[in-house]
């Protein structure tokens, strides 16, 4: 009797183990990071710099060297509010994006004080072809990237809203920038920021594997006196040039769109993704 019970228990345990393993394997095979930056060139990207036509890479602002996307101002005499954005060639809707960046060198002459060690990942953005020649920022949700000055607290993966707004805790937030709960990253160290985007339902910011902000209902600024604007369910992804040199060594994405209508599978895949704490390695 005892032997039969032990065999039954072993069988049940084996079935449970195989079931759990199957769920993990199912999630694993769906977790595929696509490299948006190939480490060699900007062939998959479009450039829009204020006061210049689409794909005019004014003064070689965006370049690839040493396997990094480099934002540089060596050929500028002054910044002159020529904010730039490097757009990936296609839009996304539901996804997890990971970006590793570092600030280097000195800010260009006449760069705004607030733009010191300042860049950003723009998500749910407008098509760069629809931007006016003098438009400074695409209408988008900005995941603001900031570096410390060596002494003061300065969070990164903050939220700014050029032409947009959002909801948090059931309230519509109209202020332009809101700080995250991240720690400060001083110096030229590499930092990894990830953003989970689920259409217009949820956006979550992570820094080196730690959640630092979440909110819902990203939307365009309202018009005609309305309280809410048009909800943003998809859009462009771009990287900023805001007057301080910055390197991007990795821009990668897990496209979750095929699970958007399958909440249980989506939940499994996201759970698997977030079990790993991805931290930028220093070189």
TrEMBL record:
Transmembrane segments: none annotated. Residues 1-27 form the signal peptide. Pfam families: 3keto-disac_hyd (PF06439). Residues 33-253 form the 3-keto-alpha-glucoside-1,2-lyase/3-keto-2-hydroxy-glucal hydratase domain. It comes from the Bacteria. This is DUF1080 domain-containing protein. Keywords: Signal.
